[in-house]
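User: Just a sanity check before I run the rest of the batch. Below are the structure tokens for the first item. I only need the designed sequence back.
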């Protein structure tokens, strides 16, 4: 066991938490990919729809991250993860409240502000966590990339004009218009898709790293025994 721990540290992996972490990444990828699919295959994009999908995904992710922060002993960035969990749960609950009630202020402007604030704050928290984690840690890449694309989402959505309504005809002269609702929700859907794929890749990478660490630990434990024989 001691050699396994040393091997894990040598590979930038904490052997106590890795199994739970890569599984947590997969559970976080699921709502993101579902949200991306719902947005992609739904034609009517309006503020309440955006609030509903965004709120469900963010709330689900916040709960999963919360279990990660509380349930994994020795988590290297427990404080950052717990902060992100609480904030995501609050914002997700607020978004669902906006989606289900008959509020006149549940408009595209409110949706843009909600997404932007959540993304910017969450991105900052994740980027700060990436600087706290050891440079050789396998977790660093996932946190850094996730924080970067989340902050990028906040910046892009913040610049969507709430009064955007650009008509278009297209090659086949199909009438339509690009509204702020469509553009902002489209950006959120793209973000969910990229994040989901990223989490799956990082989960697979983390699992493979753990398996290599375990194999190296087994080799280290076996070699002295063979020499003694």
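Assistant: Here's the designed sequence for the first item:
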């Amino acid at each position: 066991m001691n050699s396994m721990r040393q091997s894990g540290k040598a590979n930038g992996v904490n052997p106590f938490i890795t199994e739970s972490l890569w599984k947590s990444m997969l559970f976080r990828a699921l709502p993101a990919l579902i949200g991306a699919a719902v947005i992609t295959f739904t034609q009517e994009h309006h503020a309440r729809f955006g609030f509903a999908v965004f709120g469900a995904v963010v709330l689900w992710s916040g709960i999963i991250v919360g279990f990660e922060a509380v349930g994994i002993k020795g988590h290297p960035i427990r404080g950052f993860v717990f902060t992100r969990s609480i904030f995501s749960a609050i914002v997700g609950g607020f978004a669902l409240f906006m989606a289900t009630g008959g509020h006149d202020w549940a408009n595209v402007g409110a949706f843009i502000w909600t997404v932007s604030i959540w993304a910017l704050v969450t991105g900052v928290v994740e980027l700060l966590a990436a600087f706290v984690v050891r440079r050789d840690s396998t977790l660093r890449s996932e946190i850094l990339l996730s924080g970067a694309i989340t902050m990028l989402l906040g910046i892009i959505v913040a610049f969507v004009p709430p009064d955007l309504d650009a008509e278009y005809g297209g090659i086949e002269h199909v009438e339509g218009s690009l509204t702020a609702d469509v553009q902002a929700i489209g950006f959120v859907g793209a973000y969910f898709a990229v994040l989901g794929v990223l989490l799956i890749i990082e989960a697979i990478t983390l699992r493979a790293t753990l398996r290599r660490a375990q194999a190296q630990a087994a080799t280290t434990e076996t070699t002295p025994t063979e020499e003694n024989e």
